[in-house]
Amino acid sequence: MTREPYLIGYARVSKGDDQSNAAQRRALDAAGCKRMFEETASGGRWDRPKLLEMIGQLREGDVVVVWELDRLSRSLKDMLHIMERIEHAGAGFRSLTEAIDTTTAAGRMMMQMVGSFAEFERAMIRERTSAGLAQARAEGRIGGRRPKLGDKQRREIAESVTSGRKSGAEMARLYGVSEPTVSRIVAAHRQQFSQQQREQA
């Protein structure tokens, strides 16, 4: 005889939020959840302590219930990963607000469609990235950020600071770079000058 599905609620609010899990808890209680996992954590990560604890205790036939999909995760990629973990445990998933229920054929089809769209999006991103790199190679461009300062500008910065005509802060403002960048340019210039002196000695 098949046992009645054991409904497990998961409620989450983000850190720093003024709200509490109370509204979610009431909705999950009304839905018939027998057990509740609650935490205050960002939805941008899937490896949350209470979420992992819940997934680790799932049994076949259990159903994870959330108030809204974004309580599970704000990232589509992470949400699909969590759904895979739930499915691997033999459990189902239900979202009250979006009326998604993977214990039904329609709910499973909807999640498969979501997964298909996510995979399509990743494939399109990969394709655009590959096309962009190929175009850059064809035009003789190399990946990475273009240097902000040319050799002449770097030399002017180094000579102005080492001669005392300008301070590092002044040169940083003049060329729109940070003071640490100016310091590195001056240090490299001094090291190069010292090496040249040793070679000539």
From TrEMBL:
<dbReference type="GO" id="GO:0003677">
    <property type="term" value="F:DNA binding"/>
</dbReference>
<keyword id="KW-0230">DNA invertase</keyword>
<keyword id="KW-0238">DNA-binding</keyword>
<feature type="region of interest" description="Disordered">
    <location>
        <begin position="135"/>
        <end position="165"/>
    </location>
</feature>
<feature type="domain" description="Resolvase/invertase-type recombinase catalytic">
    <location>
        <begin position="6"/>
        <end position="140"/>
    </location>
</feature>
<dbReference type="GO" id="GO:0015074">
    <property type="term" value="P:DNA integration"/>
</dbReference>
<dbReference type="InterPro" id="IPR006119">
    <property type="entry name" value="Resolv_N"/>
</dbReference>
<comment type="similarity">
    <text>Belongs to the site-specific recombinase resolvase family.</text>
</comment>
<protein>
    <submittedName>
        <fullName>Resolvase/integrase TinR protein</fullName>
    </submittedName>
</protein>
<keyword id="KW-0229">DNA integration</keyword>
<dbReference type="GO" id="GO:0000150">
    <property type="term" value="F:DNA strand exchange activity"/>
</dbReference>
<dbReference type="InterPro" id="IPR050639">
    <property type="entry name" value="SSR_resolvase"/>
</dbReference>
<feature type="compositionally biased region" description="Basic and acidic residues">
    <location>
        <begin position="138"/>
        <end position="158"/>
    </location>
</feature>
<dbReference type="Pfam" id="PF00239">
    <property type="entry name" value="Resolvase"/>
</dbReference>
<keyword id="KW-0233">DNA recombination</keyword>
<feature type="active site" description="O-(5'-phospho-DNA)-serine intermediate">
    <location>
        <position position="14"/>
    </location>
</feature>
<dbReference type="InterPro" id="IPR006118">
    <property type="entry name" value="Recombinase_CS"/>
</dbReference>
<dbReference type="InterPro" id="IPR036162">
    <property type="entry name" value="Resolvase-like_N_sf"/>
</dbReference>
